[in-house]
Each structure stands twice: as structure tokens, then as C-alpha cells.
Predict the structure.
Amino acid sequence: MRHRRLRGYHRYPEADIGLTTRLASWLLRIHHYTMDSEWQADKTERHGKMLELKAILVVDDDKQLAAALQWILADQNFLVDVAFDGEEALIKIKVNEYDLVICDLIMPGLRGDEFYLKAKEMRPPLSDRFIFITGFGTNPKIHEFLTRHDVKYLFKPFPVEGLIRCVKEALA
């Protein structure tokens, strides 16, 4: 595999330094919580339950919004994975287990509604744990899809508190 040197780092064509940096930061935070097993065991005994992290897949072609959602949700102690289109998201749900999917509806390639239908076939229990986000709430096709499948949705722009509340309700 060919790679090129970029400011002291090895840059691989399929890698994203921004994503790598965020992942590294997240891993450091997780490592901080788990690095002392005695402390974890003591904490578990005192509080009676372990910290259970829920995995969320964010699917959006808007990379800035996807990164923002990743940070917001990670800050709420969720494990967050990101896919930038429906095809990439399908691959991720084939190999990973997610507790929730937050998905844009209008994306190039495989749209969010098409991804939902394929995901529903692959992992039926996941179909009840989708939250759709869209800036096209007045589009009759989108409105019809949302009502026919009775799924949760938010219209862009949405308040962060509304997103967090919707996520917690979906995972309850």
C-alpha cells in the first residue's frame, strides 16, 4: 500500500487524520476509565452496577454534522461510529452491533430510507431503533416514509437537547 508523509505522520489514503485524532482522544478517555481494574472493581461494588456504554451509528453525508454529532454523543457517554453514506453504513451494520442508528434521509448513493429498508432485512430488531434527521421535512415522499414506518425523526436544525432526549428515549 502506498502512503505519503504529511507533517511527520504517515498518511494512508483511506485514513482521515481528523477522525483518527478524535478516535485517539476517545480511546484515551475510555482508557482513563478502565486502566485501573482495582478502582473499577471497587466502584462496581460500591454502586452495584457497571457503566454500560451504548453503541450508536451516525449516518450522514455532511461530514461536519457527523463529526459534531459524534462529539456530542460521545460526551454523553455513547460509543459512536460514523458512516458517510448508506452503503458504508450497511457494511458497518453487517460487522458491528449497534444499539441505535441516527441517519440522514437525503444522501448521495444509497439514501437513508433505502438504507433503513435494507438494514431492517439484515437486522430486524434494529429497525425499531432508528432516528432520522432531515432538512426536507416538507417533502411529501419523506413525510410519507416517516409516517408509513412510524419512526422517530428530527428536522434540521434541531436543538442538541432535543437530540439527546430522543436518543435516551429510543434506548430506554
Observations:
- The beta strands are 4-6, 9-11, 55-59, 79-83, 100-104, 130-134, 152-155.
